[in-house]
Design brief:
The protein is mainly α. The chain has a single domain, classed as Cytochrome P450 (Cytochrome p450). It contains ten helices and nine strands. It has a three-stranded antiparallel β-sheet with strand order 1-9-6. The mean pLDDT is 87.
């Protein structure tokens, strides 16, 4: 493929996955258009609220209108087919079907705008984190050959134990990826995909030695917690081995939030990351065009060139 933006390609891949989970076959015809609109929406989430043409926030608002229009057309088409083909249409276990059918204790169903709001929120959240952490995991491993080799050897051993009649990976293999799980946690610790969150104290509370009074609005700066040397010795050093038999104290490892705001896609994200890294480490190598490209931090931490690189196939790839 020549030179590609590695991050952009992975974002497209993870977006297709989450689209298929939510919409199934209907996603195929709209995935490219929706992915472009989600990119604009995502950049506007943390932008200054200047609703004037030419500003990121204004473009994000227009993107959301386009997203609503597209998802409404998918919803209308699914309902039309259900009327024509009967109640058996749409029994596939995808999220849109579930949202159309779910009822509360009074028998009330979700309105279309509620269904679309949920889809917009979860479609956006369901692919960004996975793509960014995959990219940074690959980049950081290749910057540290000793860790890369250890991760690759673990995957080779797992691959050798897969029965010849089995197609692909199962949860059994996923649960054997102990070192790769350490790599993922170390990447999440070092990169801090979600840099911050705003919260209002519902009661007096102590956070890392600070007293927050009831009613105060606070900014939780996750990155400062993750890079605290009292919690993580030499915190800016990439070292997956720090996670061996290590369980961080509550409130000191927050890549997916905490408490009632904990990300419901946590397990899916880690599963996607592990599967991608398994096959990539066994079969490919990343060669960045500019390893010293500047880093941007909003809306998420990423290289300015979106990790422009060439992908090389290894001479002796895995047969898994």
């Amino acid at each position: 493929m020549g030179e590609i933006e590695f991050l952009t390609k992975i974002r497209k891949l993870t977006f297709k996955i989450i689209m298929y989970i939510f919409l199934s076959s209907e996603s195929e015809r709209v995935v490219d258009d929706l992915e472009k609109e989600y990119t604009h929406l995502n950049h506007g989430i943390r932008a200054m609220a200047i609703n004037i043409p030419g500003f990121v926030y204004h473009r994000a608002r227009k993107a959301r209108v386009n997203l609503v229009t597209t998802l409404q057309s998918v919803l209308d088409e699914r309902r039309r087919k259900r009327r024509v083909e009967g109640k058996n249409y749409g029994r596939t276990k995808v999220m849109m079907n579930g949202l159309m059918e779910v009822e509360d204790e009074s028998g009330r169903k979700l309105r279309d705008e509620e269904i679309i709001d949920i889809l917009i929120m979860y479609l956006n959240a369901g692919h960004e984190s996975s793509a960014h952490i995959v990219m940074w995991s690959v980049v950081l491993l290749q910057q540290h050959p000793e860790f890369l080799e250890k991760a690759r050897k673990e995957q080779e051993e797992i691959s050798k134990r897969i029965p010849p009649t089995q197609e692909g990976l199962t949860l059994k293999e996923y649960r054997q990826m102990e070192y790769l799980s350490n790599v993922t946690d170390e990447t999440l610790h070092l990169i801090s995909f979600s840099l911050m969150a705003f919260r209002e104290a519902r009661q007096d509370v102590e956070i890392n030695g600070y007293i927050i009074l009831k009613g105060w609005k606070v900014l939780l700066w996750f990155r400062s917690i993750h890079l605290d040397p009292e919690i993580y010795p030499d915190p800016k050093r990439f070292d997956p081995s720090r996670w061996k038999d290590f369980k961080p104290r509550p409130g000191t490892f927050l890549p997916f939030g905490r408490g009632g705001r904990f990300c419901p896609g946590n397990d899916l994200a880690k599963l996607e990351i592990a599967i991608f890294l398994h096959y990539f480490l066994l079969n490919y190598r990343l060669e960045r065009v500019d390893p010293k490209a500047p880093t941007l931090y909003l809306p998420h931490t990423r290289p300015k060139d979106n990790c422009l690189a060439r992908i090389r196939k290894l001479s002796s790839p895995s047969t898994a």
